[in-house]
Amino acid sequence: xxxxxxxxxxxxxxxxxxxxxxxxxxxxxxxxxxxxxxxxxxxxxxxxxxxxxxxxxxxxxxxxxxxxxxxxxxxxxxxxxxxxxxxxxxxxxxxxxxxxxxxxxxxxxxxxxxxxxxxxxxxxxxxxxxxxxxxxxxxxxxxxxxxxxxxxxxxxxxxxxxxxxxxxxxxxxxxxxxxxxxxxxxxxxxxxxxxxxxxxxxxxxxxxxxxxxxxxxxxxxxxxxxxxxxxxxxxxxxxxxxxxxxxxxxxxxxxxxxxxxxxxxxxxxxxxxxxxxxxxxxxxxxxxxxxxxxxxxxxxxxxxxxxxxxxxxxxxxxxxxxxxxxxxxx
Length: 330
Fold this sequence. Notes:
two-stranded parallel ribbon, globular, seven-stranded parallel sheet, single chain, alpha/beta
């Protein structure tokens, strides 16, 4: 008599990464919908197959989480969508504690592809969460963790190019960034990350107790991306995007001015965000995002989509690129 398949509980299943994980569990790996539970702060059956269990679970309301996770043997903890450090870490700790209480045996956390000792602000909540997850699992017999450092989305390119808008007039096509424009980034498509993450969930024991990196198979610098965008858009000569590296203080000031012109009205809040985002570029300069790991390509069993191929798809819809800036610049 065969044992029942492990029940997987997904968080973040309506988001960019989580929705692709769900898609690939169902349609690529043929996991039965009856083996999947979705925990969401706004439960609605509309986006999901009818026989998936949908439960109310809010990271910021801890009392809702144990019942949302109940019955699951594996939890995919998709990182909370906020740049507020304390809020994000609290949300993650609430979820980890609730998973232990609910009897979950394996917690899979989606971290980010910066170094474990990175000074980039965007990585700090991940570093703290990774440490808490390891400590918590070590103190609970039979509870395992996997940390997936998800690579930098191809779809977030405009954010890394100083919030570049490809819909701008030719005279405004300057990519302004702090130092780091020539260091590589191992960009990777969100859909491929979703499939790789889904495959790790279904092969949980193989990755228990490990921190793994899912990266692209090649690196392209910020300057290189600007060149690819210019080529795809047909910008030549003076029309091509030009990369300008600025000192950090000047870059922050210019980005704040740009965002204020775009409708932002909170000067100090906008400045605070830009200072935090600016800390990403020294990490790029150190090569933190240039690490290429073959794991994702091996998991998928095929060659990954290149940054140029991804951009060709994305730039068919310039409006979509503009919307992506708002999505990632939270």
